[in-house]
């Protein structure tokens, strides 16, 4: 293969990555609008509903803190996934991507147990406006976590070998941007729903 062909191939790949990143930023901007509008609505209603303090007390702040630590740890492992790609270290890529996926699943499992405890107490979305917001916001967030896990599993499947890593590993940056966004959303949800 000539050096000119390699140069064109590299430019095409670089352009594709840039296009992918631009598309992801546009998608995240739309997601910010969705979550932002719901969060602002919640805060404005919270200011006029002092009784929500009693509702918030039903949420276990320790469990929420543990889930926050789980997501923050998964952000760290996602950064290590991208580092492993840059270093072309397929073993580290597999290890850290597996950890990220596992931490996402643990987060959802903990959230599932929380939901179960609330259901047993009769705290359903129709119980009050607060619980409607709680289940709406955390449910939407959980769907985004699930989508991130699916994207990470997909990338893990195609990039687990050195050859696959060289070909598809650049997507780790895109997956990472999405994963960090989902983590940041939780950083806003946690104090509002558990400490508010």
Structure in words:
With 196 residues, this protein is an all-alpha fold. The protein has seven helices and no strands. It has helices spanning 3-48, 52-56, 61-86, 90-120, 129-158, 162-168, 171-195. The longest helix is centred in the N-terminal third of the chain and has 46 residues, at 3-48.
Helix content: over 70%
Please give the radius of gyration in angstroms: 20 Å
Strand content: under 5%
Major β-sheet profile? none
Q: How do the helices and strands follow one another from N- to C-terminus?
A: HHHHHHH
Report mean pLDDT, rounded to a whole number: 90
* Spatial shape: elongated
Q: Terminal Cα separation, in Å?
A: 62 Å
Unreliable sequence segments:
1-14
The number of helical segments is: 7
Q: What labels describe this entry?
A:
elongated, disordered N terminus
């Amino acid at each position: 293969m000539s050096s000119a062909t390699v140069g064109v191939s590299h430019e095409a790949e670089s352009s594709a990555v840039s296009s992918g990143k631009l598309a992801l930023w546009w998608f995240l901007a739309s997601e910010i609008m969705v979550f932002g509008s719901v969060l602002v609505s919640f805060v404005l209603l919270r200011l006029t509903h002092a009784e929500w303090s009693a509702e918030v007390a039903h949420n276990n702040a320790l469990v929420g803190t543990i889930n926050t630590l789980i997501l923050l740890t998964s952000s760290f492992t996602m950064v290590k996934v991208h580092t492993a790609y840059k270093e072309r270290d397929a073993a580290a890529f597999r290890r850290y991507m597996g950890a990220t996926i596992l931490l996402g699943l643990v987060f959802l499992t903990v959230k599932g147990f929380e939901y179960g405890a609330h259901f047993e107490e009769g705290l359903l979305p129709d119980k009050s406006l607060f619980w409607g917001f709680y289940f709406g916001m955390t449910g939407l967030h959980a769907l985004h976590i699930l989508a991130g896990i699916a994207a990470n599993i997909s990338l893990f499947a195609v990039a687990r070998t050195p050859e696959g890593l060289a070909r598809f590993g650049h997507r780790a940056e895109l997956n990472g941007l999405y994963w960090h966004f989902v983590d940041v959303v939780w950083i806003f949800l946690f104090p509002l729903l558990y400490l508010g």
